[in-house]
Batch of 2 targets.
Target 1
Amino acid sequence: MEARIGFLPREEGNGFWLQVPGKPPSKGSFKVVSTRGFNPKSILLSQTPGPMAEFDGRVRYVVARDWERLVTREWLAVVEKQRPISIAYFVHVTRPKSHYHKPRGSDELRLKPNAPEFPTAPPDLSKVQRAVEDTMVQCKMIPDDRFIIDTCARRRFAAEERLLIVVREGPDPSTMAASPFDPEPGRVGS
């Protein structure tokens, strides 16, 4: 599986998706030292060596390779006019070997009955979100992380490790259900 980027079909709204293979790192960070223009290849980073730098490099590679070729005028208007956006994160991690066992008389690995249903080991979703948002802002893929009005993040077990990100203009339709924590109309700010 290789890193890929694409734009959502028009009927799904104005937005794009980004898929990066491998497990997102759980530690480390980076900061911008200087930028020269709007070319993602020209961003110079002060990186802590290790997994974060490597993962960030994979994100930057696919952006540098495909972004200018695929970006749409509609999405550039979102960035230029600083419109609100939503981001959904899907982190897929593989199960560790300790979740499996071989029953007696069998060569087949089976999932242990007490294996957890959901992953609780690193990477932390909040760190993945922060790292990806910083990279997308620096690469001029999104206007700024303050324009993110909705986020949805999920971490699940899967056959292959990867990070899938879906970015769209406006609120995410999957988060539009009414919540008891939403302000009542007419009572905002009171």
Target 2
Amino acid sequence: MKKFLSSMVLAGFFIIGVSSQTMFADSVESPSWFKEISVEEAVKTNIDEFVQGYASKSSLRNVVSNEYYFISNNGEPLDKNELSVLTDNSVEQLPNEDGKISNVIALGKSSINGVVKTDYYFSEMEFNEMESFKENAIKVATNSQKSEYARTLTNTVTPMSDAPNYIDTYSWAIYDDINPSAIGGYLNSTVEYYKQGKAISGGKTVSVWDMKSFNQTEPINGYQTRQASSRHSVEAYVPDEKMISYGPTGDVGSSTVEVSLTGGVPTLTWAFNSTNITISDQSSMSQGFGKWTLNYVLGTTNAKSPYTYAPGIRAINFSGEMKFQHNHFGKFYKNLSAEATESTPLVVKRLTDL
């Protein structure tokens, strides 16, 4: 089965015109494996076509590409034509509760285990100073280089597919409510999609999908994370799709959280740390969504530093494409006059299926 991830891989290959030198003067120094490339150059070199060809031929396991490609217009949003050329068009945005849709400021390209990965960097601003975005992208890419998302949380039961079929990363800059030029933090979400096989439901053959999400709050500029929430859903696609399991379940106040996705195929289980964080489960099995709200204790490590929580859902599909929706909320606090809050637009992921 052809597998895709949201990142990009060009391991052992050098594209003419791509340089490891920064495009942004007096900006953050790049690691040698972090390559910056303009949108024009990425389009000219058919970057996705090469990466997909490499990934489909790769038989290596537990291998992360040596290079990460950061593609931007140097602060200007990518337009629809550029996104159409540089992505597989499986991701779209729907407006948030305020009717907003974010701009795509940059893309990241890499691969893990032969799976092509595309990272989306969002901002509500029309023009962006790229230094902060680049710093965040290096952190996202470093996580991929270390295989953090794929390997640090160990599955206690091996599912039918032990490596994701698709991976995307989405990153939103959250701006101060009063000072729109100040970023209080980032919401980063790496989502793994596993097509686990087929089962019988109501006398019909269905496909079974697991969605495992690594959602990270990353405060910067002296802010701390006060609250976050994530919603992962198939609600809009009922009755063609149905959520059959999710986790974590129930309100959580312990330091370790366990997640188990069950039903139809072997169980997928993992755990994550939640020290000094309370997690409220607001999910609805009948409506088809998992939702969790996290409250942080100011002054603690998880409030002051990047923190990753890892919920998931299992769903079945009766016909056509498999589709998921994701959206997040973040509140970053500095003082009574400086707070950054935002609810992200809905991200829709469409996956070829039945």
